[in-house]
Amino acid sequence: MSGHHDSPASVQTALQQSVEVRPVLVALAGQPNVGKSTVFNLLTGLSQHVGNWPGKTVERKEGTFDHNDVTYLLVDLPGTYSLTANSSEEVIAREFIIRERPDVVVALVDAAILERSLYLVAELVALHVPVVVGLNMIDVAEQEGVHIEPEVLEAALGIPVVPMIATKNVGVRELLETVDRVAKGEIVCNPKPPQIRQDHQEVLEQIEELIAGCVPAPYPQPWIALKLLEGDQEVTAMMQECLTEAQWEAVHDVLRAHDDALVAVASGRYEWIGRMIRAAVTRPKAGQIGLTERLDRWATHPFWGLLILAGILGLAFWLTYTVGTPLQDLLDTYVVDGLAELAHAWLAGAPVWLVNLVADGIIGGVGSVLTFLPILLIFFAVMAVLEDVGYMARAAYVMDGFMHLMGLHGKSFLPLFLGFGCNVPAVLGTRVIESRRARLLTILLAPLIPCTARMAVIAILAPAFFGRAAMFVSWGLVLLALLVLALSGIVINRLLFEGRRAAFIMELPLYHLPNGRTIGLLVWQRSISFVKKAGTLILVVSVVIWALSVLPGGDIETSYLARIGRLLEPAGRLMGFDWRLMVALLTSFIAKENSIATLGVLFGTGEEMGLAGTLAAAFSAPTGLAFLVVQMLFVPCIATVAVVRQESGTWRWTLFDLGFLLVVSWAAGIGIYWLATLAGL
Amino acid sequence: MKNRKMRRAARSRSRETTPKNSVVSLTALGVGERGVVVELTGGRGLLSRITSLGFTPGAEVTVVQNFGRGPIIARVRDARIALGRGEANKIQVRR
């Protein structure tokens, strides 16, 4: 390493680095649905980097942009209604502001819901950071009959207010100018933070006196006192650590005597907001019924709402099958097979094992990543459009009662339903669920949804065993999978999450036209992240399983995989499986369809009709049924496992899920086998 | 069936007979009815969430949807919020 220091190139980069100044750090804050991602995408475009906040499964987006020869680093804070520690999002947002001290915080507010969206601003100004308010969606506000004078609001708040319409790129330049001037110190923010409601003033002072001098470094003391009164769990735990036992006792006594203080603090903020907007807002037309409410009469109706939801889902699947599946086939025949042929031609003189490794192992693995993409793109796009338009919240509203039975949230429904197409977007789609617990549970349950690949296997194998009754068997298998999903939801929720029920409180945002740029960037990021993270794992596992199936002799029947299958045979004996069925299950780990190919090789015939006949002759009907059941509930394909790992954030939960599915599929298979045997099938 | 009829009857009765200034829970308001929040009950986590969403004493609330069962939709401070009945029951309003 040390030798490199002298090379001219590295000297030059070192020089450049020392000259380069730190970019101006700007944090983008705002409540959900205020157009934060639109603004973020507009400013950073493709320069953005998507990752996770350290130690959290919350998405962290940052990106750079230049303005007036200055480089800015823009960090998108999670969208939160407040800064009280109700979930990890609020903690991330406030810790970033308190610890990283951004040069400017841009607080985006929705002009059509001004009072409510200023609530976050009321919390931000108490943190003593320079805040610029982006007054977004002024066009929507005008439509709703609300007129706002930004200058008057600015004067009242004591911080700059920039009116804008982010979707039409109006006001974004002005926002940047203002951020620039605040960062340079040309505009000094001088807000007067909100006070606690009058009747609790004394209590607040009491708390402040008790904790004076004991608040750890970057935290402002008045803010800590306020959060203690609000009953913030993180701050309470922190102060309990910092204070002596006697001191904490005193604080605790005051807090216990005023456990209603939380409402007083929130009321104080809303009183402050009321004073700020009194002069700035006029609403001549009160109580008119907007488009959103008219649409919602249908979209959230207990009957019509369900019908609309069914229609939208039908459309999503129609799109998948008419566009996605043919594309998938095209990719398979032209790109994957083409690449394999190319590899054969290129490596003409090379040893056979190398040719096979490249053509079957690596290109096969790459192929399974690649052929996932068309379906993924469509599902990501559907999810992004529904989210951006504002429909997602309505779907959640309509389905909430049903999903709650399983300890899930209304928002779990759509991702799970998309799982019928493919489990991968189902798991990735759980990002719309705010509650961490409901999200994890949805991720764990998603592999139980029968995806198209599983259904394809069932569609080929069911007629082999059951002839004309195959259709009823297939429907029965789907129902079984859904039943198992519902029961698993109830059981996991009871056992692991103590049956807690997430409170159902959710905003129904205004409907608006979808923004192409926002949706496009979202689809792009999700796809890239799938290829990068999940793709690597899929490739590695595919190559390993391929290697196990050809080593040492090049023949699957004498391969290591077959030996593993024979080793595991006793477990399968319980329902009449032999080692070949075990190997078929093992190879389904790469992709579900592989089961068919494996059975074709092992039973000595590639043709489906021939295979069907051989299988029916080799196994009894109960064994066939049990095999179908296990196929249906077995551990998902490696692509799904990869995203479960990615989205749950730990191997612990991923392995738990795999173990759980293994046990459930085996138990169900054995149960069905004995039931069928007893019934004399 | 009978149960539902009784519930509906009870609802309309309560709407007719309760005087104008009475304090009721948010679920008791019919569609289009307005009330002013007077009291909030419930655990700290729930309170923190509903207050930040705009339900604080003095705030005006209009019920947008209420089918007598299932979650309700209420408008508060210009935002439409869907609440489970359990959550809505913890918000006391003066109609």
Labels describing this entry:
heterodimer, A: 681 residues, alpha/beta, Rossmann fold, Helix Hairpins, 7-stranded mixed β-sheet, two-stranded antiparallel ribbon, B: alpha+beta, SH3 type barrels, 3 helices, globular
Oligomerization state of this entry? heterodimer
Strand elements of chain B, count: 6
Spatial arrangement of strands, main beta sheet of chain A: 2-3-4-1-5-6-8
**How many beta-strand segments of chain A?**
10
Overall mean pLDDT of chain A: 85
Q: What is the alpha-carbon Rg of chain B in Å? A: 13 Å
Largest interface: A-B, 37 and 33 residues
Number of H- or I-type helical stretches of chain A: 29
Describe the SSE topology.
The complex is a heterodimer of chains A (681) and B (95).
Chain A lengths: L7 H12 L4 E7 L5 H9 L4 E4 L6 E9 L2 E7 L11 H13 L3 E7 L3 H11 L6 E6 L1 H6 L3 E2 L1 H8 L3 E3 L8 H12 L17 H11 L9 H9 L3 H10 L2 H13 L3 H18 L2 E2 L8 H9 L4 H43 L5 H38 L1 H14 L8 H6 L4 H7 L6 H10 L6 H15 L3 H28 L7 E4 L7 H35 L9 H14 L5 H9 L6 H9 L5 H11 L2 H13 L4 H11 L2 H28 L3
Parallel strand pairs in A: 1-4, 1-5, 5-6, 6-8
Antiparallel strand pairs in A: 2-3, 3-4, 7-9
Helix pairs in contact in A: 4-12, 8-9, 8-11, 14-15, 15-22, 18-28, 19-21, 20-21, 20-26, 20-27, 21-27, 22-28, 23-24, 24-25, 27-29, 28-29
Chain B lengths: L1 H16 L5 E3 L8 E7 L3 H9 L7 E6 L6 E5 L2 E5 L1 H4 L2 E4 L1
Antiparallel strand pairs in B: 1-6, 2-3, 2-6, 3-4, 4-5
